[in-house]
Amino acid sequence: MRTYSKISTVSLFCVSLCIGLYLFFLNPQLDSFFSGSDGKEPYVYFANRIFEANYSYISESILLPLFARVIGASQSPYRYLILCAIATILILPNVAWLAQSYFKNTTQSVSLLVVFILTYRYLHEFLLSFPDPLTILLISALCFQRKQQFIFIAAFLTGLSHFSMASLGLCACALLIFCANANDRILQQKLAKHVVLGLIAAKIFLSLWYAIFEYQLESRLSIVVSNGAQSFIDSYQTQQLEFWLTPGIPFLVAYGAICAYFAFCNQIAFALALLLSISLAYAGLFFATDGLRVFAVIVVGPYLIALRQIITELYPKVCHVESDKVKCFISALSREFRWIALGLTCASFWTLLTLKAKNKGLLINNITEVHIFMVSLNPVILYLWFTSILMFAVIAIPFLRRLTIWLGFAKISVVLPLAIVMTQLFRQELMPPGPMTLVQKILAFAVFLGISCLMMKFKFLIVYRRYQSNIERLGHLLFR
């Protein structure tokens, strides 16, 4: 069992490392990071002068520049960027390894990793050269620790990595750890206390460092006071929707669902702590100009703790199913497999065909796009995707196959674009090019609708029903 656990952990680490590499090189701004000078030159300059008098605000983030100075990564901007790239790529493997060591269950670790990859926007839109990846690595390590000394060390190093962001993120983590539902409440209180103690120790260490090396700093609070609150209010009012959607809709949906679950389970304190945590992240975002990176660093700790807690509670309820129910489910799935395969094949082929036809100008292409939440939506594209999903559902789901209304509606929706494509082909051959008149459009639509209604009477699946008994016998032999 121990060998299997090690193999699973190593395999999960390698897979998450590959995914981290893929997401890293998928960033469209990667070339600009290495070609430009914004963001990296100040940190390299500070790393070379970290033991001298320094007057730059970024000196509150001393851990990454200090590490770069020690290993020689500050000798050139490109070496420093490579160090930042390595830290960014290691975020996912680090979370995977820590989750596996915490859960000691591959299914739970994979569940957390999948949700984290799909919803944590920073993995897809990171900014290289800042100390954010190192801060995220340290906060992630704190979220999966059960020992007080490790909690203290992780909080201390996180404060050295970027104190202003860490102060908000770690306070939120301490609150969630304190409010989390656990068997040992005394241990939870001690863990939360050590988070705060680590943050205080980091502040004391930074203050001594500033005094010894004669740093004269301008804190974020002093910047907010000097700029005035009105400047931040004006910036917010110019892009209110962008402000609230900074973490991305998938993250907001997942975070809201987690809050709703704990509130529904009468864990009101933990749900309120989650709301307060995201409020701190939005507060940090409001008084900053760095956008996503500030929000991502502050919220990563609370988000991982929330995922850890909900997976811990849901796993016994969802995954501990009796074996006979699993067999019944597999047997039922095998009986419907032919319909699922048929529906997927038909929907995929139809979607590719119609999209190809639209790109060639064989569908209605002069419809004005609709703008919803800053996203341009083409009604024709939406109709094609909706029809493909409807086609798959009507073929694959037995209940919908027996409903004449849904079946007829699906046939009309499928045949209508095909009739338009065929008419457009004949029209290009027989008529001169140019836009159709209103009368031609009305007549064409009437013809298309009539052809589609006639197709309702055709039994497309009658051939498969002839072999239904043979397929069911084969499925019974394979999955009995």
Summarize the structure.
This protein has 480 residues and is mainly alpha-helical. It is 76% helix and 1% strand.
Strand content: under 5%
Mean pLDDT score: 80
| Individual helix count | 25
* Helix content, binned percent: over 70%
Poorly predicted residue ranges: none
As a whole number of angstroms, the C-alpha radius of gyration is 29 Å
Largest sheet, spatial ordering of strands: 1-2
Overall shape:
globular
* Distance between the ends: 29 Å
N-to-C SSE series?
HHHHHHHHHHHHHHHHHHHEEHHHHHH
Largest sheet: 2 strands, antiparallel
Query: How does the helix and strand content classify structurally?
Result: mainly alpha
Total DSSP E strands: 2
Overall description:
The chain has 480 residues and is mainly alpha-helical. 76% of the residues lie in helices and 1% in strands. The chain is built from 25 helices and 2 strands. The chain has a two-stranded antiparallel ribbon with strand order 1-2. The longest helix is centred in the middle third of the chain and has 28 residues. The radius of gyration is 29 Å and the shape is globular.
Offer a few descriptive terms.
globular; mainly alpha; 76% helix; two-stranded antiparallel sheet; 480 residues; single chain
